[in-house]
Amino acid sequence: MPLEEHSTDDTPSVHAPKGLPVSSDATPHRRLRLHRDFPSAYLPDKRDLIVYVPPGYGRHPDRTYPVLYINDGQNLFDPRTSFIPGQTWEVREHADEAIRAGEVEPLIIVGIYNTPVRLAEYTHERDWQRGGGDADKYGLTLTREILPFIATQYRVQTDRDSTGLGGSSLGGLVTLYLGLRSNSASWPYSHPASGGTTRASSATSTSAHRKSGTGRACGSTSATKKAAAPCRMWRP
């Protein structure tokens, strides 16, 4: 199923590839498109991207859509790739139902598969036992490579109010971290959608001081709010 042609986003892309093979045959539904082996200049591992387009996408070639990026993308749609075999988050089914009921605006959803180094990419501080600490590089991969690539392939709205990031567990932690960091003056992200809506479900956010017995939970589920007090979040 070919993608509809449309104009590209004028945001400069730092390292986004000009194109990747896309397939709907390798997915469990015709409105899911799989882009395999997305490369990054910031992280060594390639990752797959799976994209959901809403009902009516092909019938309305002039319409643009808000976009939601979700970490751990292999869990969203395909029971063959999910962490628990045969069980997905049923994101397509719930999105279709909510759109047809008029509960949400039609949107595009991009699942970003994790890699064998998920712990490193989804945590922002390195722990002396478990490692980690590459969340900033993951953020650069997202904003400087994945977002511009999606904007060249799909009719997405590219302003920050129309761009969201979500995740669960460690995927929720990195969502929370990037949402908070994107509002910092020192944050290196250049994409105008940086710092849009964030949704973190059951985010793993335990203090790095946990091993000393002084651990505490911290953080916020909104990119527009700051943590109540300085703390170091870390995987339990």
Describe what you observe in this structure.
With 236 residues, the protein is α/β, with parallel strands linked by helices. The protein has one domain: 3-Layer(aba) Sandwich (Rossmann fold). It has a 7-stranded mixed β-sheet, with helices on one face. The chain has a two-stranded antiparallel sheet with strand order 8-9.
Question: How would you sum up this structure in a few lines?
Answer:
Helix content is 19%, strand content 17%. It is built from four helices and nine strands; from the N terminus they run E-E-E-E-H-E-H-H-E-H-E-E-E.
Task: Summarize the topology.
Blueprint: E1 22-23, E2 32-38, E3 47-52, E4 67-71, H1 91-100, E5 108-112, H2 118-121, H3 135-153, E6 163-168, H4 170-181, E7 197-201, E8 206-207, E9 233-234
Number of DSSP helices?
4
Low-pLDDT segments = 1-16, 185-193, 198-236
Supply the helix-strand structural class. alpha/beta
Shape: globular
Strand tally, please? 9
Radius of gyration: 17 Å
Task: Estimate what percentage of residues fall within beta strands.
Answer: 15-25%
Q: Which sequence of SSEs, written as H and E, runs from N to C?
A: EEEEHEHHEHEEE
- Rounded to the nearest angstrom, the distance between the terminal CA atoms is 43 Å
Report mean pLDDT, rounded to a whole number. 75
Largest sheet: 7 strands, mixed
What name does the CATH topology carry? Answer: Rossmann fold
Descriptors:
single chain, 236 residues, alpha/beta, Rossmann fold, 7-stranded mixed sheet, 17% strand, disordered N terminus, disordered C terminus
